[in-house]
Amino acid sequence: MSVVKITLPDGSSREYPLGVKGIEIAQSISEGLARNALSIEVNGEIWDLSRPIHSDSSIKIFTWNDKGGKYAFWHSSAHLFAEALEALYPGVKFGIGPPIDNGFYYDVDLADIPFGDEELIAVEKKMLELAKTNSQFVRRDVSKSEALEYFTKKGDPYKLELIDGLADGSITFYQQGNFVDLCRGPHISSTGPIKAIKLLSVAGAYWRGNEQNKMLKRIYGITFPKQKELEEYLHMLEEAKKRDHRKLGKELELFAFSEKVGMGLPLWLPKGTILRERLEQFMRRAQIRAGYEPVVTPHIGSKQLYITSGHYEKYGKDSFQPIKTPDESEEFLLKPMNCPHHCEIYKVKPRSYKDLPIRYAEFGTVYRYEQSGELHGLTRVRGFTQDDAHIFCRPDQVKEEFIKVIDLVLFVFRSLGFENYTAQVSLRDPENKAKYIGQDELWERAEREIQEAADERGLKTVAVKGEAAFYGPKLDFMVKDALGRSWQLGTIQVDYQLPQRFELEYIGSDNQKHTPVMIHRAPFGSLERFVAVLIEHCAGNFPLWLAPEQIAVLPISERFNDYGKKVLDILKERDIRGFLDERNEKIGRKIRDAEVNKVPFMLLVGEKEALENTVAVRKHGEGDKGVMDLNDFMATFSKDFALPS
RNA sequence: GCUGUUGUAGCUCAGGGGUAGAGCACUUCCUUGGUAAGGAAGAGGUCGAGGGUUCAAUUCCCUUCAACAGCUCCA
User: Fold this and answer.
1) Does A368 qualify as catalytic in the annotation?
2) What's the Å distance between residue A563 CA and nucleotide B27 C1'?
């Protein structure tokens, strides 16, 4: 056979000579595509454009607009970085240098060479210089012995360790210029297209992520085909920093931390508390409509409770330690989760199959001793409030209940304008079953039912092994923060284990005892994290119903403070949150301050308004909306003041 | 928890071996102004904490705490 059949993404296929290269296919399609092509997907694998294709294949040619294209570009940039670094610092040892979502990094052992901003700039310069030589990335298959010999000679222990773990026959080298790296690829054709380079930061990272190993320097960078794109990216980073919830939380006086109170223990300021309570009201109402019953449980529970649940064994040592009492036989733990308490509520009386499902909801504040280096604003704290609920149901009700919870989560996301979320099915790590409790068949059943429920609601899911909780698989909803970091928000978890451990039961229609299934769920995840992500999502410009201060009443001069007070009183009668700016300042100044504080509406009152009983409406970010009767104003926006439903 | 960086007024930051400075915010006075910063005066700090070196430390050294970045972790 001297031809291969190549199937294109549109389903059409063409024949090419055996050993055709991606770049040749691109040229045959169009000159423009060939010019922009960076890599090619061949039967689901991403290849170099210069690698010959020897069998019938489905292909897709990637450009800068595809993730696969960017990855090849950034992977090649990592090699270019290594080449430049080696040119400037001969003898440095290299770990790994992969592409990431935004750019690339390379782990290097610089021994004791100091490496700061100046060095980063010097390496950037060298990279640009080398990129201009437009050297080809050349792929070469090497035998394991040849690979070992090369890096032994070069004296790079990290690469030797990597090669050690690879099978002979699967090892490839890539070379550009004088630099040779162990690499699976793929790469772009040559260094020329790398036109704009920025090395962003240096951080420590353990070799192979193991803290027993030596710490290497991880150098992050990003590159672009055009200088303008780099500038736009850097601008975007600046903008993202302005949305950081830690910054806005301080500026808008939403929350604070105190060294004296303790790290990771947020203090909610008055404005932040309003925001948080509005979210609670919103969720309470949605839950009551969905058939949940609110419950309240204490902040501590006896150690025995957590021995029963299995949490003590799993987390006891690495958590807040037991609280003692004068009675030495007593020990209590700060509650790290609400489920055991809710199980005990279930147990207060015998249950019939007709009672199920039972749904207990609680805004439960829990405490977890997170590692100090993990704490991060409101997204990772040591004391937080979950919008928690536990659904106790029969096995035949699991899927239906799960779907109802998905609907609730999606309602919440929709109401708050979150469109960019991903759903992750978190499964057990089949290689490490000891990490989990419970029988295999229950796990398999739960994993299957989660996937089915998600599919039924048309969720796009990614299954990730090893991400399950120790008692059951989860469906996690993830969103990204302003700086592109991914956070888990809502979570839904099926649990066959806790009901057994707590010996929960119900009497079935067969008059026999059965064990119910438990579903843990928290659409917000925690109020803390949700508020953090919400702040970044809307850059502090909260929807009207959530805004801590909805309206600023701004008298033109002190002469109209009395009328302003009257307007404010009317607003307050309608439960609208507002304040009167009585300061001896000009109107321009009052407007500026209200704008900076992101107050959604400003009502200006002066001589004309006081005489006519009206207000001059100004909307945040939009400007003057004209003079209106106060009642008309409130009627026009009444829907926006109310909880969404 | 590990590695690195940082810590000066309420906030944002400058400074630097001889006991501190700016802008904004704050207070008072003048001004009563119509859609993003009116003017003047004033008050405000154990320079994160503890120890050391020194005639002298906020500045140099050590320890510690916290924040930040990354790694590891996340019921």
Assistant:
1) yes
2) 26
Phi-psi domain of A149 (left: phi exceeds 0; alpha: psi -120 through 50; beta: other): alpha
Query: Is residue A386 annotated as part of the catalytic site, yes or no?
Result: yes
Domain boundaries A69-239, CATH class: alpha beta
Pairing mode, strands A99-100 and A52-53: unpaired
Looking across all nucleic acid strands, the nucleotide with the smallest C1' to CA distance from residue A319 is B75
Eight-class DSSP state of A349: S
> What's the pLDDT tens digit per position in A157-194?
889 888 888 888 888 999 988 899 998 888 998 898 89
pLDDT score of A50: 86
Q: Which of A126, A198, A520, A521 is catalytic?
A: A520
pLDDT of residue A481: 66
Q: Give the side-chain half-sphere CA count within 13 A for A118.
A: 2
Residue A339 among the catalytic residues:
yes
Query: What's residue A58's pLDDT?
Result: 86
Question: What is the widest separation between alpha-carbon atoms in chain A?
Answer: 94
Give the mean pLDDT per block of 10 residues along chain A (645 residues). Answer: 84 87 88 88 87 88 88 92 90 88 88 74 89 90 89 88 84 90 88 90 81 82 91 84 92 92 94 96 97 97 94 88 92 94 97 97 96 92 96 94 95 89 88 80 88 92 87 88 74 92 96 95 95 92 96 95 96 95 94 96 96 96 95 95 93
- The gap between A264 CA and B63 C1' (Å) is 24
Distance A483 CA to B14 C1' (A): 29
CATH class of the domain whose range is A3-63: alpha beta
pLDDT at residue A483 in the model: 62
Protein-proximal nucleotides of chain B (any atom < 7 Å from a CB) = 1-4, 11-12, 26, 29-38, 65-75
A183 catalytic, yes or no?
Answer: no
What pLDDT is stored for residue A231 in this prediction? Answer: 87
CATH code for residues A551-641: 3.40.50.800
Return the CATH architecture of domain A261-300+338-538. 2-Layer Sandwich (3.30)
Q: Which nucleotide is nearest to A491 (CA to C1')?
A: B75
Rounded-to-integer distance, Cα A24 and Cα A7, Å: 14
Q: Which nucleotide is nearest to A335 (CA to C1')?
A: B75
Could you give the ipTM of this predicted complex?
A: 0.94
Total Cβ atoms within 10 A of residue A510 = 8
Task: Tally Cβ neighbours within 10 Å of residue A286.
Answer: 19
Given the residues A79, A368, A404, A620, the one annotated as active site: A368
State the pLDDT at residue A240: 83
Contact A136, A48 (CB under 8 A): no
Provide the residue ranges of all domains of chain A, joining segments of one domain with +.
3-63, 69-239, 261-300+338-538, 551-641
Is A572 designated active site?
no
Q: Indicate which residue of A187, A335, A380, A390 is catalytic.
A: A390
Dist. CA A589–CA A582, nearest whole Å: 12
Q: At residue A491, what is the residue type?
A: T
Given this model, what pLDDT does residue A31 score? 87
d(CA A163, CA A171): 8
Which nucleotide is at minimal CA–C1' distance from A265? Answer: B66
